[in-house]
Amino acid sequence: MARAPRVTTQPGRLIVLSGPSGVGKDTVLHELRTLEPGMRYSVSYTTRAPRDGEVDGVSYSFIDESRFRTMAERGEFLEWAEVHGHLYGTAEARVVEALARGEDIVLKIDVQGAAWIRPRVAGAVFIFLMPPSEDELRRRLLARDTEDAASLDLRVRNAVAEIAEGAAYDHRVVNDDVRRAAREILDIVRHRRSEGV
Ligand code: 5GP
User: Fold this and answer.
1) Which of 30, 134, 149, 172 has the fewest CB atoms nearer than 10 Å to its CB?
2) Domain named Guanylate kinase-like: which ranges (predicted)?
3) Residue 145, pLDDT score
């Protein structure tokens, strides 16, 4: 049954960006924000440990599971999900405030989070970043070298299932070249703006 949307994106736009682990979401997002400095990014909360170089409050807000569960019980997340064995969530207040200021804001979330948001947020645009091929995705994950063997294997298996979910998105963008992919996403967002949605 269709639910009434809980959040409307006006006057800003909510851009939901998903894609399998290793596809290059962070790099494309960084490029997108270089091309369009006004583009906001919603920093998620996670129970995963920080990787080398990740900064608390910039990459993620890193919190423990009990604090995460408390926030979830209080309804502070627009959406949350368990991904690759860790909890990840989007703070509703951060998103709603940006949209109310008329800013465009990107959520970099998994397919479960996107499926949760789809019926609840009117006017959001859903973009799925695709790898040029499954082999190339495995190669990028290996090159990233941030995962142990079990975690890498889990991410590759999840990736295959996630790619199939891309069909549910408004747009699929192939990350064959970072700048090209970022420009394609920007074109999608600008088109939305010009249509006033
Ligand atoms: P990573 O651990 O590699 O940073 O992220 C793993 C996965 O979690 C990625 O697919 C990423 O998009 C997803 N993710 C990050 N933040 C959130 C969030 O707030 N909600 C959901 N549902 N997924 C998230």
Assistant:
1) 149
2) 12-190
3) 67
